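User: Modeling request: complex.
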Amino acid sequence: DTGVSQNPRHKITKRGQNVTFRCDPISEHNRLYWYRQTLGQGPEFLTYFQNEAQLEKSRLLSDRFSAERPKGSFSTLEIQRTEQGDSAMYLCASSDQGAGYGYTFGSGTRLTVV
Amino acid sequence: AQSVTQLGSHVSVSEGALVLLRCNYSSSVPPYLFWYVQYPNQGLQLLLKYTSAATLVKGINGFEAEFKKSETSFHLTKPSAHMSDAAEYFCAVSPSGGKLIFGQGTELSVKP
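Assistant: Request completed. Predicted assembly structure:
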């Protein structure tokens, strides 16, 4: 068990470009969550999956954001037409049988839009 | 709507002193409650969690928290602060076992 893995660790992109992040959860965890964290703030919920089904999506998530978990294993988060306001740390977490068992977080992907 | 309030965005203590980080929540149902710690440029590490068993929960690194339903609080304590405890601490609630809702965080500084 290598924990939750996120790639890349850092991404610098120009405004208007598309970016994609990957998250590999703990293999036996059926739930996967994406969060966004800006400097000095707590993580904000974006979306989560149970297996391959996307069960909830935050109203904060604009149409430029999309997430997938095609085979119920790894997940990708894509941001289209990036804006400077998208600059943040994107965190992935996984859990087994719901939050009552605790979440395990990855180290995050830091996105900088210039 | 469920929410979490952490009182004090920054707390400073001396090494060896008591650490008290405050967290109040609002939830319409009995919640799951968590404390996480975050070191610079890292993800979040679970310190402890309350899942409706014992109201006094012991976690890692000597931390503990007490669930008080009447006060809707889940304050984090440690009897004696260590320099390595300096970090950002987040309280979080999961009302129904799904997503986590986080507080704004409390930065803990430990003075020698």
